[in-house]
Write a structure and sequence with these properties.
Elements lengths: L1 E2 L2 E2 L3 E3 L6 E4 L10 E4 L2 H9 L6 H18 L3 H12 L6 H14 L7 H36 L7 E5 L16 H8 L4 E6 L6 H13 L3 E4 L4 H6 L5 E4 L3 E3 L4 E4 L2 H10 L4 E4 L5 E2 L5 H4 L8 H4 E5 L5 E5 L12 E4 L6 E4 L2 E3 L3 H7 L7
Parallel strand pairs: 6-7, 6-9, 7-8, 9-12, 10-13, 12-17
Antiparallel strand pairs: 1-2, 3-4, 4-5, 10-11, 11-16, 14-15, 17-18
């Protein structure tokens, strides 16, 4: 996607060196900065500190992290230690384990001398597959937007509400929830996007709004609590969210606050879709509320906020009284009964075990 009119991906291996470049997302939207990862620890820190974030991008970064680790030491012990280090960074997104397990499987039967090249090839394939999956997902989501556009008066935009950032910044390119939006814009369909700010890290306000602006997509940032009001007044045509982990039965685990949007959408008969690349489906889990581990992040993300001050400097200010404790669960689970459908690279499935099994018969449990 575009940054100041120039195409970029969120990460890319640097030609001729054992290094991976990433966009440092902690510095957006006020500064576009590129960071070099040259070691396993660089990759692990980028994931845990959320310099890269979003389930697909976390997976891709972890795969390149295995490569960087093997460049330094390709022995069996180092490989297993690298896998453990990466898996400890973030517990909720299933793509992390999927990518790490895949990278380990791709190299562990090889002699140490052949492992770095094999790990790099695996990471490159994973990155390219992510782009292809998102492109296909976008086309299937485009069909949903076309149907809604056909029912609106000529020239009236389709109003899409998003939550958090499931855009190209959360993937290698194109995004998951934004892929249908970008496909619709390319097809000439008038659009407007309501962008949830997504407290406490404000990834909607800082990241989704930034990338939509860079692509020239009309949008408006709203407070998280405004979505239900807009739905009540007919100003939202559909909701599209991402997912960090989706169960085999269609429960969707996504950024905290998604569940509340699904409840409001259900009450107001607004279609609620999750954009679900198959890499984010956990076929081993059936009850998301009970079985998905929910990451608890630092209370300071709730008690403070960082932004650009009036004099142009970046600064952090406290929002809450000194001594008031804060809780910070990072994700919630939306039960399948509230999900209109799951947009995947193979089509749109009902949010049921049967719906997913019809599209993914080889992976789905019987």
């Amino acid at each position: 996607m575009n940054v100041a009119g120039r195409p970029h991906r969120t990460l890319w291996p640097e030609p001729g060196s054992a290094a991976v470049a990433i966009i440092d997302q902690t510095r957006l939207p006020h500064e576009f900065a590129v960071l070099r990862l040259t070691t396993l620890e660089d990759a692990a820190r980028a994931i845990s500190d959320m310099q890269v974030r979003g389930a697909p991008l976390i997976g891709a970064t972890a795969a390149y992290g295995i490569w960087l680790a093997l460049v330094a030491d390709a022995a069996d012990g180092a490989l297993q230690a690298a896998a453990r280090r990466l898996l400890a960074t973030r517990p909720t997104a299933v793509n992390l384990r999927w990518a790490v397990d895949g990278a380990v499987a791709a190299v562990q039967s090889l002699p140490p001398s052949a492992r770095p090249a094999a790990a790099r090839a695996f990471a490159d394939r994973l990155a390219e597959d992510d782009v292809a999956v998102n492109r296909a997902l976008g086309q299937h989501g485009l069909a949903l937007i076309r149907r809604i556009a056909a029912q609106k008066p000529p020239g009236q935009p389709v109003n899409v509400l998003t939550h958090c950032n499931a855009g190209w910044l959360a993937t290698v390119d194109l995004g998951t929830a934004t892929a249908p939006i970008y496909a619709a814009a390319a097809a000439g369909i008038p659009l407007h996007v309501w962008v949830d700010e997504t407290r406490p890290r404000n990834q909607g306000a800082s990241l989704t709004a930034w990338e939509l602006r860079e692509q020239g997509i009309p949008h408006t940032v709203i407070a998280d609590n405004a979505g239900g009001h807009l739905m009540q007044h007919g100003r939202v045509d559909l909701v599209i969210v991402g997912t960090d982990r989706t169960t085999a039965t269609g429960d969707v685990c996504n950024k905290i606050g998604t569940y509340l949007k699904a409840l409001a959408a259900h009450d107001n008969r607004v279609p609620f879709y999750a954009a679900v690349p198959s890499s984010s489906i956990d076929w081993t889990i059936r009850d998301g509320r009970r079985e998905i581990p929910i990451e608890e992040r630092s209370a300071t993300e709730v008690t403070t906020i960082t932004g650009r001050l009036a004099d142009g400097r970046m600064g952090t200010v406290r929002l809450t009284p000194e001594g008031s404790p804060a809780a910070n669960p990072a994700f919630d689970v939306t039960p399948a009964r509230l999900v209109t459908g799951l947009i995947t690279e193979r089509g749109v499935a009902p949010a049921t075990a049967e719906g997913l099994r019809a599209l993914f018969p080889a992976q789905a449990p019987t």
